[in-house]
């Protein structure tokens, strides 16, 4: 069903070099000339991967925003969906095995633990790392989503774009390590090739668009990550207030060394001021940023649809995670990056 050019990926992640002020839906990318970039692994990619020693990985710190409530009231902002419901199914990877345990974990409010079943989410979710100045390192979480180019992951905008420097972190040894576990990297490290977000995030810091799609290089054998590990499905304008699973690597639990999860019913966030995102009961904190929210999640297979991600906490509402609602604009961004 999916085809791709093995050599050039000139159309991926369309770039606007001069964002139009005040248009929040200008797509911006880290890559100034995507058509000149090879998909394939080369020496520069090898350099990015070998930058990461175990000590550097362990030293990485999380970056999750903690916001003060942004409205005078706790009135819920419930915006109508802004387009058709669209979805793409997850895909199977050649290394993805059937789930080891079909145990169904409870949909308990605030439930949080290591998920019992090693389904698709184990292969597709991973840890993200980059370097900052002064030998300090950052970390987030992210997940592979089904794409034609077989190399697309989704994470939070605040993981890709640094508002202090006003730059994407593309030149900061940005990598993805799927199924990271206490230093183990069973499927290796994967370097970022491009990262793309809306000016709604990069310029306006609008948390409705705290979303970034990252395209990865192949590994040294020229293999695409999705071919090996599969991908989760993704959906937009999906039902609100539904049972949602969230995965990620929060620093408050096992120092971010092990993938954790939360699950529960999503509800409208109380952040206010036009925030259309949802909130789920969850005691994960920084480090799980960018980790996927999956609806219609089947515990025995790990299959489902990514409909949001871990974005921010609110100071006065502990144990609730907020995430942007994937609607038509986010779907358009995905469509640009998945080709
Ligand atoms: C990250 O590390 C590279 C070396 O690989 C270095 O050139 C770069 O300056 C570092 N980035 C920052 C922001 O310090
Ligand atoms: C998702 O789950 C709901 C019920 O929870 C069901 O009605 C719907 O058909 C499911 N969607 C898909 C694509 O499986």
UniProtKB/TrEMBL annotation:
Sorted keywords for this record are: Signal
Provide the transmembrane region boundaries.
Answer: none
Signal peptide feature range: 1-17
Presence of keyword Signal: yes
Q: Superkingdom, according to UniProt? A: Eukaryota
Output the InterPro entries linked to this UniProt entry: Glutamyl_endopeptidase, Peptidase_S1_PA, Peptidase_S1_PA_chymotrypsin
**PANTHER family attached here?**
PEPTIDASE S1 DOMAIN-CONTAINING PROTEIN (PTHR15462:SF19), SERINE PROTEASE (PTHR15462)
Q: What is this protein called?
A: Peptidase S1 domain-containing protein
| Organism, as annotated | Adineta steineri
């Amino acid at each position: 069903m999916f085809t791709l050019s093995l050599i050039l990926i000139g159309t991926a992640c369309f770039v606007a070099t001069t964002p139009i002020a005040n248009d929040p839906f200008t797509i911006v990318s880290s890559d100034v000339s995507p058509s000149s970039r090879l998909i394939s692994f080369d020496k520069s990619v090898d350099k990015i991967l070998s930058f990461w020693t175990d000590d550097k990985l362990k030293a990485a710190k999380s970056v999750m925003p903690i916001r003060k409530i942004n409205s005078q009231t706790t009135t819920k902002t419930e915006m109508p969906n802004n387009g058709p419901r669209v979805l793409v199914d997850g895909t199977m990877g050649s290394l993805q095995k059937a789930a080891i345990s079909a145990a169904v974990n409870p949909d308990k409010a605030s439930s949080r633990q290591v998920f019992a079943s090693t389904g698709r989410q184990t292969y597709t979710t991973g840890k993200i790392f980059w370097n900052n100045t002064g030998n300090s390192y950052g970390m987030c979480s992210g997940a592979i989503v089904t794409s034609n180019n077989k190399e697309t992951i989704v994470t939070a905008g605040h993981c890709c774009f640094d508002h202090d420097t006003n730059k994407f972190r593309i030149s900061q040894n940005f990598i993805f390590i799927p199924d990271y576990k206490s230093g183990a990297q069973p499927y290796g490290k994967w370097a970022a090739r491009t990262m793309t977000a809306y000016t709604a995030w990069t310029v306006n810091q609008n948390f409705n668009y705290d979303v970034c799609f990252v395209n990865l290089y192949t590994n040294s054998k020229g293999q695409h990550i999705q071919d090996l590990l599969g991908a989760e499905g993704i959906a937009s304008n999906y039902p609100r207030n539904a049972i949602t699973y969230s995965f990620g690597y929060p620093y408050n639990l096992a120092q971010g060394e092990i993938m954790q999860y939360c699950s529960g019913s999503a509800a409208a966030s109380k952040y206010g001021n036009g925030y259309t995102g949802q909130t789920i009961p969850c005691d994960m904190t920084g480090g799980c940023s960018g980790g996927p929210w999956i609806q219609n999640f089947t515990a025995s297979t790990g299959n489902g649809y990514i409909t949001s991600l871990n974005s921010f906490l609110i100071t006065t509402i502990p144990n609730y995670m907020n995430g942007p609602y994937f609607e038509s604009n986010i779907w358009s961004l995905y469509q640009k990056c998945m080709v």
